[in-house]
Input
Amino acid sequence: MAAPTTPQPRLTHRAPTLLLLLTALATALACHHLRPRHDTFPWDSLQLLQAMAPSPPQPCQHHHAPFLFPNTLLRNNHPQQAAATVLHILQHLFATLSSPNTPQHWDHHARHLLLNNIQHYIDHLEQCVPPSAMLFQRQGPRNLLLTLNKYFRDIQHFLHAHNHSACAWDHVRLQAHDCFQHMDTLIRQMK
Output
């Protein structure tokens, strides 16, 4: 006579949940080592930005740009969304500031240090930020990633419309300054 069989639990239904929990735990642990660097990154970057891009040699009548930093990016209660926002801001800043069209009077050594600083921080954030598409679509008003992309696209259009002039780049420098200041707020939200 055969012994009655007891149904074995199917692990295949629990595996995706377990994988998500393990991914979240690994993400949290990966971000943990960034904390000491969080406090100084924006301010160190501001100092490098100032050393890299002093005011233009000739006075500029600042062009009135049709864009401001989107403050909706600062309103969130989710530390990983704040980290994802900082990551995307840095990726856009890196792409903009590494352009070969930057003004000749900018200090190349300070620019190199700033870009290295940004890239180093991007590398660390990429280890601890979940896929951005899901995170940005779940949180906040509409899609914050689209808002951020539009902001930096407007900056690129502004540079192009003004033929990458020193005065247009000075305005971009001021926008980068604002970005680093706002990143300080976002980095505090990551803690």
Remarks:
- The chain has one domain: 41-55+65-189.
